[in-house]
User: Which sequence fits this backbone?
């Protein structure tokens, strides 16, 4: 089983309805669209805290899962800046 699936099936929020989990995700999406770009790290920190403290996903696992998207963004950052 892939690591992301294992954490999805064993976290503390596994019995919650998907709509209950979509509410904070949608709220953070709306916040990141409405707030200035400088507030993006605060939204990221809030979602990280919700994932680590709320769902009890280990920090190491979360960082491992976010490594690929973060690497993609870092590689594309010069092109996005232009």
Assistant:
């Amino acid at each position: 089983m892939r690591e992301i699936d294992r954490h999805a099936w064993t976290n503390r929020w596994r019995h919650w309805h998907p709509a209950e989990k979509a509410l904070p995700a949608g709220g953070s999406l709306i916040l990141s669209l409405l707030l200035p770009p400088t507030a993006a790290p605060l939204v990221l920190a809030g979602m990280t805290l919700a994932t680590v403290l709320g769902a009890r996903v280990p920090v190491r696992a979360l960082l491992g899962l976010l490594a690929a998207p973060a690497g993609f963004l870092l590689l594309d950052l010069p092109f996005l800046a232009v």
